[in-house]
Every structure is written in C-alpha cells, then in structure tokens.
C-alpha cells in the first residue's frame, strides 16, 4: 500500500497504511523518521506541529527526513513524491509522566553469587556477602557496594 511511514523508538511501522491516515502511540520527546512508500526520486515534505511546537524537518527534500516531537499533540506530515503523488499522515504524540512515587522498597538480603549477571545495565540488591550493603552487579559480573 502507498503512503508515509513514521518510525520512532516507540512506534515501528513495517509498511504504510494508506495515502491519508492517522496514527497514535507516539511519545512526545522522541525523534520521528519519515519515509514514503513506494519510494520516489524527488520529495517535498511539509510538517505542521501542535500549538507551541518549535520542531522542523531535518530536510524538506530528503527521502527520510527527521523531526523531534517536541510537544504532545497532533503532527501532520505531507509529502509530494516525484511532483505528482501526495501522501498525508497525522501522528498523535502523548506526554508520558510518572504520577506516583514509591515511598519505600523492601528488599531481602541475598548472597552476591545468587544474583544473576544482567545482559546490560545493573541489578541492585542487598548484599548478604558484604554486611548487607546496597550493591550493584553489572553485565561483567562485577559487584560494587553503593
């Protein structure tokens, strides 16, 4: 199907869904990459953001321009491909916030050897092997008291 693809970290469109469509699920603050399907040899992109948006396209004549969804609201991207075919997509970006904070976390003390090594990042735990110190285990298996 012909139309515009709009991909971000939170939304991946494997194929276009039509010449004039609306899509939801985007998150304010993300970078969005646009592309047209089927591809052409010449492009003219325009972008309208929600009220207060200061965003702009990285290149109005590029095959795959980018822009930052700098506010929540509706972004309307339009492209004219090869000076003949026009596609439109409306993207709804929402603001994601945390509206509560835990007042405490209860953790049981465990031996460092029983804590699995993460593939990436860290695992935080109470280290029974080190006088119940709050500790981190990294992806190399190194344990560090915090």
Question: Can you describe what's shown?
Answer:
This protein has 146 residues and is mostly beta strands. It has two domains: 3-94, Immunoglobulin-like (Sandwich), CATH 2.60.40; 109-145, no CATH class. The chain is 0% helix and 45% strand. The protein is built from no helices and eleven strands. The strands form three sheets. The chain has a four-stranded mixed β-sheet, with no helix packed on it. It has a four-stranded mixed β-sheet with strand order 8-9-10-11, with no helix packed on it. It starts with a strand and ends with a strand.
Amino- and carboxy-terminal Cα gap:
54 Å
Low-confidence stretches are none
- Helix segment tally: 0
Helical content stands at under 10%
CATH topology of the largest domain: Immunoglobulin-like
Shape estimate: elongated
Q: Report the top-level CATH class of the largest domain.
A: Mainly Beta
- Helices and strands: which structural class? mainly beta
Q: From the alpha-carbon coordinates, what is the Rg to the nearest angstrom? A: 23 Å
Strand count, sense and barrel status of the largest sheet are: 4 strands, mixed
Order of strands in the sheet with most strands: 2-7-6-4
Count the beta strands: 11
Whole-number tally of structural domains: 2
In round numbers, the mean pLDDT is 88
Proportion in β-strands: 35-45%
Descriptive keywords:
single chain; 146 residues; mainly beta; Immunoglobulin-like; 2 domains; 4-stranded mixed beta sheet; 11 strands; elongated
């Amino acid at each position: 199907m012909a139309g515009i693809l709009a991909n971000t970290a939170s939304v991946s469109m494997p194929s276009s869904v039509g010449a004039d469509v609306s899509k939801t699920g985007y998150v304010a603050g993300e970078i969005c990459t646009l592309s047209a399907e089927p591809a052409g040899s010449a492009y003219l992109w325009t972008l309208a953001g929600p009220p207060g948006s200061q965003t702009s396209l990285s290149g109005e004549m590029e095959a795959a321009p980018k822009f930052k969804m700098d506010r929540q609201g509706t972004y309307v991207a339009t492209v004219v491909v090869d000076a003949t075919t026009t596609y439109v997509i409306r993207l709804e970006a929402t603001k994601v916030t945390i509206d509560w904070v835990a007042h405490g976390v209860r953790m049981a003390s465990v031996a460092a050897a029983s804590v699995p090594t993460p593939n990436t990042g860290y695992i935080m735990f109470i280290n029974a092997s080190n006088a119940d110190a709050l500790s981190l285990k990294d992806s190399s298996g190194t344990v560090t008291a915090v």
